Amino acid sequence: MSTVNQNNFSKQAEFYSRYRPVYPPLMYEFLFRHLERKQYAWDCGTGSGQVAGYLADHFELVYANDISAEQLDQAVKKDNIQYVNKPAENTGFPSGLFDMVTVAQAIHWFDFDRFYEEVRRTTRQNGLLAVIGYGKVQINREIDPAINDLYERAFSTYFWQNREYLNQEYRTIPFPFDEIAAPRFSIKCHWTLNDLEGYFNSWSPVQKFKSEKGYNPANETMKIITGKLSTVKPFEVRFPVFMRLGRVSK
User: Fold this and answer.
1) Closest CA to 97 of 72, 129, 122, 126
2) Among residues 34, 50, 130, 113, which one has the least CA distance to residue 64?
3) Between the CA of residue 168 and those of 46, 67, 144, what are the distances in Å?
4) Strands 40-44 and 178-180
5) CB neighbours (10 Å) of residue 182?
6) Which domains does the chain have, with CATH numbers?
7) Is the separation of the CB atoms in 245 and 180 below 8 Å?
8) pLDDT tens-place string over residues 15-37
9) Contacts of 33 (CB under 8 A, 6+ apart)
């Protein structure tokens, strides 16, 4: 499996920064309970730095990487976050440094073997690797079929092989670490129609669809949803959150 092309995420960097859902504090509390110390963390494939920003409030120093310079331009800025424009498989970070490595909604783009080698090299003995993901957005039984149709149209045209790992909640990825059982979590947000449309436009296959076919497949979906939801009041959206958590031994 090859590393993702940086252009897959560069075009929608602003949408990604503004509209991606935020992981719940309970998820981080669960991770932190398994740490031996909280000094150095690496957030891999950081995108707009959502996870890195949270970790920075709990670790002395956070390193974060992404191959998209445009994404990093939009990333959360804090004094104790060091961003680098490098691939996950070859970061140049110091060896044996990290107490925890996080990779959120990104590992399905990586070369697993090479990335895991880099994790082992850069993580201290008994450090943690947390592979985190979230599933399809859910609103209600009336709206969800329209969202699922857009999802199938966009991802079946582009990047379906990568996305299958997420569809299977990362259960089918190789994971050669001492695994720690992890509960499921949930993201709940109150969004407007503009928020939902922005989220759709943060999808890499939607941007590729627009570029190659000349129209945005999310527009039709938004027309359907607008006919069923209030254009004024925010509504609840939900995302299921899942993870693989492992202890890294040398």
Assistant:
1) 122
2) 50
3) 22, 25, 19
4) unpaired
5) 19
6) 7-248 (3.40.50.150)
7) yes
8) 555 667 899 999 999 999 999 99
9) none
Amino acid at 242: F
Alpha-carbon gap, residue 3 to 140, rounded angstroms: 35
Residues 100, 106: Cα–Cα separation, whole Å: 16
Q: What is the pLDDT of residues 177-199, one digit of tens each?
A: 999 999 999 999 999 999 999 99
- Locate 166 and state its tokens: 């997420």
Angle (CA) 16-134-233 rounded to 5° is: 65
Contact 84, 149 (CB under 8 A): no
3-state secondary structure the chain: CCCCCCHHHHCCHHHHHHHCCCCCHHHHHHHHCCCCCCCEEEEECCCCCHHHHHHHCCCCEEEEECCCHHHHHCCCCCCCEEEECCCCCCCCCCCCCEEEEEEECCHHHCCHHHHHHHHHHHEEEEEEEEEEEECCCECCCCCHHHHHHHHHHHHHHCCHHHHHHHHCCCCCCCCCCEEECCCCEEEEEEECHHHHHHHHHCCHHHHHHHHHHCCCHHHHHHHHHHCCCCCCCCEEEEEEEEEEEEEECC
Question: Which candidate, 19, 213, 32, places its Cα nearest to that of 128?
Answer: 32
- Tens of pLDDT, residues 86-100: 999 999 999 999 999
